[in-house]
């Protein structure tokens, strides 16, 4: 892991990132998608890049067997402390897991910290190796235009340092933050939605579906008020379910969920 990425996560932000605002909306939408996509359990789930176990904990509470793999020792310790969750340090490109040993593999972090396409395909292939025939691989990716939209929503584009990073990101997908400025996301790769089918196919998996996670609502200035109101949250969830599969909206969503399966 590159030093700037490790330093970013050593600040501890992952422990609370999904608790409020657009992070909370990301969690609620991801959890909603998991509830509709995962087959009936109990399942054996490998959560690769599972960080502090924000999804592993609820999945274990729902009766699934969940093992987290993450390169950050702090994340491994936090995940291992959750009831029903086991965790170990590891690399998405070389998983210490037997072939065809899991019903589901989650890649909710690794793909956007692997800047080189070859490394991303290797991570997909490792997930394909570990999942059982007929099993699912679910991957979250950051969309290419996220930093452009976030940069305007938060005013970062006025900073010359951010503007320079953004220019490269828009052209190549590589968001390389070597500045140490914690306001901006660390080094990452931001996908175009149309890149994902090729990565999935090259890994030997079958593409099942893609879905916008947050949709455009993550940029709304009153999102916190929406999420504080049960009726408004339910309405937003219903509306996003109706359009999550619409390709014309995928580029406006901060994250995209890709669902693939290992051929039986």
Please tell me about this protein's structure.
- The protein is of the alpha/beta class and 264 residues long.
- It has two domains: 3-143 and 191-261, Rossmann fold, CATH 3.40.50.150; 144-187, no CATH class.
- Helix content is 39%, strand content 20%.
- A seven-stranded mixed beta sheet has the order 3-2-1-4-5-9-8, sandwiched between helices.
- The longest helix has 17 residues, at 21-37.
- It starts with a helix and ends with a strand.
Features:
264 residues, alpha/beta, Rossmann fold, 2 domains, 7-stranded mixed sheet, two-stranded antiparallel ribbon, 9 strands
How do you describe this structure in short?
The protein is built from eleven helices and nine strands. With 264 residues, the chain is of the alpha/beta class.
Shape: globular
User: In this structure, how is the largest beta sheet organized?
Assistant: 7 strands, mixed
Structural class, from helix and strand content? Answer: alpha/beta
Please write the string of helix (H) and strand (E) elements. HHEHEHEEHEHHEEHEHHHE
CA-based gyration radius: 18 Å
Q: Could you give me the name of the CATH homologous superfamily of the largest domain?
A: Vaccinia Virus protein VP39
* Total count of domains: 2
Helix segment count?
11
Could you tell me the number of beta strands?
9
How much β-strand is present in the residues?
15-25%
Give the integer mean of the pLDDT values. 93
- The first-to-last residue Cα distance is 33 Å
Task: For the largest sheet, list the strands in their spatial order.
Answer: 3-2-1-4-5-9-8
Percent of residues in helices comes to 25-40%
CATH class of the largest domain: Alpha Beta
Low-confidence stretches: none
Indicate the CATH architecture of the largest domain.
Answer: 3-Layer(aba) Sandwich
């Amino acid at each position: 892991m590159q030093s700037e990425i490790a330093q970013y996560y050593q600040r501890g932000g992952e422990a609370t990132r999904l608790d409020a605002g657009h992070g909370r909306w990301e969690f609620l939408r991801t959890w909603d998608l998991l509830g509709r996509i995962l087959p009936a359990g109990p399942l054996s789930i490998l959560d690769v890049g599972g960080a502090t176990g924000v999804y592993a904990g609820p999945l274990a509470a729902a009766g699934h067997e969940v093992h987290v793999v993450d390169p950050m020792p702090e994340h491994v310790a936090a995940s291992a402390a959750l009831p029903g969750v086991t965790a170990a340090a590891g690399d998405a490109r070389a998983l210490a897991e037997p072939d065809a040993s899991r019903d589901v593999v989650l890649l909710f972090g690794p793909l956007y910290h692997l800047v080189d396409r070859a490394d991303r395909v290797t991570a997909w292939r490792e997930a394909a190796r570990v999942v059982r025939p007929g099993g699912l691989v679910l991957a979250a990716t950051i969309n290419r235009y996220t930093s452009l939209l976030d940069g305007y929503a938060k005013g970062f584009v006025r900073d010359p340092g951010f503007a320079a990073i953004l220019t490269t990101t828009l052209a190549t997908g590589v968001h390389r933050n070597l500045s140490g400025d914690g306001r901006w996301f660390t080094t990452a790769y931001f996908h175009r939605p149309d890149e994902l089918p090729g990565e999935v196919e090259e890994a030997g998996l079958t593409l099942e579906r893609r879905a916008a996670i947050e949709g455009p609502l993550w940029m709304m200035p009153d999102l916190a008020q929406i999420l504080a109101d049960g009726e408004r949250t339910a309405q937003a969830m219903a509306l996003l379910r109706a359009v999550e599969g619409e390709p014309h909206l995928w580029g406006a969503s901060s994250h995209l969920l890709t669902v693939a399966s290992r051929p039986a």
